Amino acid sequence: MSVAIIQGCSKGNLLDNRFGRALTRALLAKTKLQVVGTTASGAEKARNAILGSGGSQEAIDHSGVKESSKGTKLIHEEDGNGGNAAGGYGGVNEFGGAPQGNVEQQRPSEGNGTTLSGSKKEEWASRLTTLDMDVREEDAIAHAAKQVKERFGSNEVRLVVNVSGMLHAEKNLSAISSSQLLETFKINTFGHLLVYKHFTPLLPHKTQFNDADDPARAVLRHGISGLVSVSARVGSIGDNERGGSKAALNQIIRTLSHELNRRSPQHPAFCIAYHPGTMRTGLSEPYTRGQTPQNTKGLFEVDQAADKLVELLKGMTAAKSGGFWAYDGRRVPW
After folding, report:
1. Residue 3 phi, psi (nearest 5)
2. What is the number of other CB atoms lying within 10 angstroms of the CB of residue 317?
């Protein structure tokens, strides 16, 4: 059994910034991995949004965890009830407020625009687990990692993707406040690092499948695991010279790559920072009005952006670890 962790898989009932949800669906559609999605906005809502379930479902608490801001509650249900899904919000700012304008609703799809069928939905439901986890709380992260270990085993995590982040570029000194700065770094930087602290020990130490049977074969090369932080080009010092929290995140990735190099040579692991381009969401709409993915380089629908990352991961090796990569397969300058 192999597992993928998507940290920041959804955001309540908002459709904006749906990258985490789209990536979760892409992995369910393209691989045979067990997929664990974490969110600070309600595991039940996240599951319903990913599967397209409507109405209330009873949460299954497998660990007796108290419901608190620091707790994590495992929700894993074998099936969902029909209905429309409101979207996720885990792409750029999992913790921010509602976008401006109307929030549309969208039926679930397999990532290619087709509506998710009943049998496919049941199959996805059997491989999807959602967890309540706030990356600002280390106790919550540690408990989520413990739950994954107890449910799937000690060395089954093949992929961890940190999606959560918040938009707040430090454009000038007058725009900085200590409270905002701390919150930004908690989410964009410290949260990613703490997720790696608690989930990296769950990576395999040896290859468990042959190539043909590898559940991750559609997204990872045989015999390798991956850690990915969704960063942004604003974190490139050479390219933008602003975005301190993302620049710090990129440094963490570079440093983490050296630690991964010292792990078991029988099953190597890579870590990368990733720039997904610009996604068409409510947050980006003021900046992309009148533009389309067809006539604007680097602008993507959310499902397209998720597919771009999957394609990039197929070519990742331990030799490419510690890099800052963009949606087009090119390195972004540090």
Report:
1. -130, 140
2. 11
Predicted confidence pLDDT, tens digits, the chain (334 residues)? 899 999 998 764 333 348 899 999 999 999 999 999 999 989 999 999 999 864 333 333 333 333 333 344 343 322 232 222 222 223 344 443 333 333 333 445 555 444 677 889 999 999 999 999 999 999 999 999 999 999 999 999 999 999 988 766 556 778 788 888 888 889 889 999 999 999 999 999 988 788 889 999 999 999 999 999 998 655 444 445 446 777 888 889 999 999 999 887 889 999 999 998 888 776 666 667 777 777 677 788 889 999 999 999 999 999 999 999 999 999 988 7
Q: Are 145 and 202 in contact (CB under 8 A)?
A: yes
**Which residue, chain included where needed, has tokens 């800052």?**
324
Paired strand residues for 281: none
Three-state SS sequence of the chain: CCEEEEECCCCCCCCCCCHHHHHHHHHHHHCCCEEEEEECCCHHHHHHHHHCCCCCCCCCCCCCCCCCCCCCCEECCCCCCCCCECCCCCCCCCCCCCCCCCCCCECCECCCCCECCHHHHHHHHHHEEEEECCCCCHHHHHHHHHHHHHHHCCCCEEEEEECCCCCCCCCCHHHCCHHHHHHHHHHHHHHHHHHHHHHHHHCCCCCCCCHHHCCCCCCCCCCCEEEEEECCHHHCCCCCCCCHHHHHHHHHHHHHHHHHHCCCCCCCEEEEEEECCEECCCCCHHHHCCCCCCCCCCEECHHHHHHHHHHHHHCCCHHHCCCEEECCCCECCC
Pairing of strands 74-75, 128-132: antiparallel
